[in-house]
Amino acid sequence: MANSCHRAISFFGVLQRIYTIFSSSTKRWKILTDNVKKLTVKTLSQTRWESHIESVRVIQSQPIEIRYALIELGETSLDPKIKSEPKCLATYEIENYKFLLSMNIWFELLHGVNCVSKNLQFKDMHMDSAIDHLHGLVSFLEDFRENGFELAINATKEIALKMGIEPLFREKRVMHRKKQFDELKVMILYYHPKNHLG
Fold first, then answer.
1. Please, what is the angle between helix 63-76 and helix 80-88, to 10°?
2. What mean pLDDT, rounded, does the chain reach?
3. Nearest-angstrom CA–CA distance, 132 and 138
4. Which parts of the chain register pLDDT below 70?
5. What span, in angstroms and rounded, lies between the C-alpha atoms of 154 and 59?
6. Helix, strand, coil: what percent of the chain each, to 5?
7. What pLDDT score does 2 carry?
8. Distance between CA 96 and CA 76 in Å, rounded?
9. Does residue 108 contact residue 54 with C-beta atoms inside 8 Å?
10. What does R_g of the chain's alpha carbons equal in angstroms?
11. What sign has the CA pseudo-torsion 76, 166, 172, 178?
C-alpha cells in the first residue's frame, strides 16, 4: 500500500529522510531528543510492516517539536548540506498542509490495518473470528472513504493552526514559456489556408 503511488512513496521517503538525518550523528540525535520528548523518529523497514505506523505516529503526535528540531539542526550545523536539508524538510514538508493531511490519513489507515493485523497473528485465532476481523477492516475502509477524509481535513486544520500554517494547499507554479517572434510566423505559415487546400 505504501509503495503503490508516487505521493505515498514521496511521503514515506520524507519520513525516512528525517530519520536518516538525525540518526547519522550522535550530536544530531541529541538535538532531536532535546526537542522531542515523547517519541523519537523511527526507520522504515520493508520486512517489518508495523514500522510504517510507528514512523507516522512520531510525526503525527508531535509535528511542532519535529519541526523545531529540524530548524535547530539547520541553524547549528556547520556542514552546508546538513545545514540546508533540515531547513528544506521543515519548510517544504513539515510546514506543508498537503504533507500534514497525508500524515493524518496515513496514520488512520495504518492504525486500522495494524489493529486487524495484530489480531490475526494470535496463535488461537479461529477462522470465523479472522473473517469477522477482515469484514470489520473492509467496513472501516468503506467508512473512511465516505467520512474519513473530512475528519482528516478537520484534524489537519487544527494541527496547521497550532503550527501557524495556513490550512491551504500550495499551488504549483505553472511555467509559461515566452514565444519568440519567429515562432509566431512559423505557426501562421503552418496554419495558413493556402497550405491546407487540396
1. 160
2. 83
3. 10
4. 1-4, 172-174, 176, 179-198
5. 17
6. 75, 0, 25
7. 56
8. 23
9. no
10. 24
11. negative
Output the nine-digit C-alpha cell for 43. Answer: 526507520
CB 73 within 8 A of CB 25: no
For the range 49-55, what are the long-range contacts, defined as Cβ-Cβ under 8 Å and sequence gap of 24 or more? 49/117, 50/114, 50/117, 52/2, 52/12, 52/106, 52/110, 53/107, 53/110, 53/111, 53/114, 55/12, 55/15, 55/16, 55/19
Q: What is the DSSP string of 123-151?
A: TT--HHHHHHHHHHHHHHHHHIIIIIHHH
Compute, in degrees rounded to 10, the torsion defined by CA atoms 115, 121, 127, 128.
-20
- The grid coordinates of residue 44 equal 522504515
| CA dist., res. 73 & res. 69, Å (int) | 6
pLDDT at site 40: 81
Question: pLDDT at position 21, please?
Answer: 92
Find where cell 535547530 sits.
72
Please report the pLDDT score of residue 180 as a whole number.
Answer: 66
C-alpha to C-alpha distance for 30 and 69, rounded to whole angstroms:
10
DSSP label at 177? P
